[in-house]
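Bit of a strange request maybe. I'm writing a small parser for structure token strings and I need a real example to test against, not something I typed by hand. Could someone generate the tokens for this chain?
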Amino acid sequence: MNQRSGTPSAISKVHAATIQKTDCCSLCSNEHSIDICDTFKKITVNSRYAKAKQLGLCFLCLKRGHRTTNCKSDSSKWCECKGKHHPLMHSKDKESKENSTEEAANKTTTDQAIAGSSKRSEEPRTVAKCEVPSTPTVASKQVLLATAIVEMVGAGGVKHNCRALLNSGAMANFVSESMCDILSLPKSCANVPIVGVNGTKMNAMFKINATVKSKTTDYESSIDYLVVPRVTGALPSLKLNSKNWPIPTELQLADPKFFIPSRIDILLGAEVFFDLLQVGKIRMSTELPILQESRLGWPIYNVRSVTGVQNCHASSSNQYNEQLNDLMKRFWMIDEQIKDQLEGDECESHFISTYFRGEDGRYVVKLPFRKDAGELGDSRTQAEKRFKALEARLEKYPDTKQKYKGFIYEFISLGHARIL
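Reply from user aminoacidic:
Good idea to test on real output. This should exercise your parser:
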């Protein structure tokens, strides 16, 4: 009690406790933070990134509970490179890796390529890697195939320019579907198997007969062409620099733009190939192609050394064989199912028991009727109502009524109906 005021005084008590907070290492579970952990420091930077991601640590402060983008730690504690990561997460040997020799790069393993993807975001990162054997660049050989610009006569005698490939190794002539649509010529069924390199197979389902005419001579020929989706790829594979080739200016080239990659519309095979050739031949030099005289002009062909050839027009794939095997497998499965269903089929037994051969040689069989067909029900009343409604309507149109009566009498006379 307060003696001066005579009133009781309130007594308050405050209890304070001091607890020493110690950080527990997420890696080794000892009483220290992970940034001073010897175990964490001994592993590589890439392994530190992996461990931090596994333990859910922030890459800036190496603590749990938030993402790196939401970290509010003091920027003065960031790495000296100004990157948004802890100093322990900085790769000191990054510069030496970027300046490594080509031989060392070729020996890089897949694990190192994956680890390299964890470097800081502002530096170039390896997204995809393709290792190519380090071999000296040598001149490849590009085969320059003989091509010619010809005229194809389509429907109505309309002429269309197209680019032809002259190929003595083909046993048939081919036309692309796009060119076939332009010609608008009638198709006929063919179903001819076409076998290519490595035994690849496809079927040409249609063929057309078209007339091809030369643009330089009076040659023309009417032959059959198998219709295929595409004859081949663009030829030549690469654009050629023919400015310095000593091509005689007085010659009429079969394909004036032979050096520019373009699509092939038709292929002229051995059926007409040797008939097109003539005796003239000009060899410009040992390193340049040959000019060959033909009824289509002077096509250019041979082997010329060029670098960087990217395409080779030869196919070696098992895709068509796999598709054919799958198709045959499905066919036999369906056939087996049909056989199972037909074992107890009544159609065959009905045919055997009811058929006979008429005097004219035709086979006659009795129409089968379902034995379990239900009754029609009470439809007479409804039929009579419709018939009377029809009579009332025909009374309004005498001409139509007369034609209707004539049709009914003819129907009865032919035996298709009878009066009940």
